[in-house]
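Study both lines:
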Amino acid sequence: MASDSPFIVGDNRNGGLRALPQARLNRRQRALRTIAALILREVSTRFGRTPGGFAWAVLQPLATIIVLGLAFSLIARTPALGTSFLLFKATGLLAYQTFQSNSMMVGKSLAFSAPLLTYPGVTWADAILARLILNTLVSVVVAVLILTGIIVALDLSLILNWGEIVLAMALAALLGLGIGALNCYLFERIAIWANLWGILNAPLMIMSGVIILYDDLPRRAQEWLWYNPALHITGLMRAGFYSTYQPTYVSVAYVLAWALIPLVLGLLLLRRYHRDLLTR
């Protein structure tokens, strides 16, 4: 005999077997609504309270690109690739910043959404997904605006490999998620870790091929820096914009390993200790 509860599987003839999938669908819909609400809250907090709002998200990396481009144009006649210092710096910096911003923003998900996580309908996974989705979308939009602006303003003729460009940005976002999930635990468990991670990001940018092309580094430096997964991402990104550049050192599998191992470890730690972290 079929049960009256929609969450208990009953007689297939009475439709009981369809109740459980319907319950799962309802839970997914509630989760999507929760994530959407968290994204809207994040948008109003990050962009709604700052003069200029979203414009700062574009102006900050653009200013960095212009400063780097002008500085290196005074040192060298031509960039390591192509003819534009601005495009060369932009292709490296924007891919790197997608990873860096995700690792930081996802890492602070618990702290940012702590007041809302006391409600039964909001979970720590919702908080992480909301920040991941919003920050990745912002990074992609900023990259499109800046790169398109540089190409149009300088009237550059390029043969774009969209597959490599999309793959580079996807890997950057995924690597940021993986490191960010682990950071999400470490930021709350070790008070000083957030400061240390912020300090590490400055030299990490230099070691990720943003400023100097990997191929132009001394052999000894190449042997050590190859183990930096962000270096593979910037190399792949540049390969998408410069048709003559073939970065044979890039390993997609290596970047995936760096993204997935911290992601699994971080999610396991958060699942086990998220309640303890919220009450610290």
User: Anything to note?
Assistant: The mean pLDDT is 86.
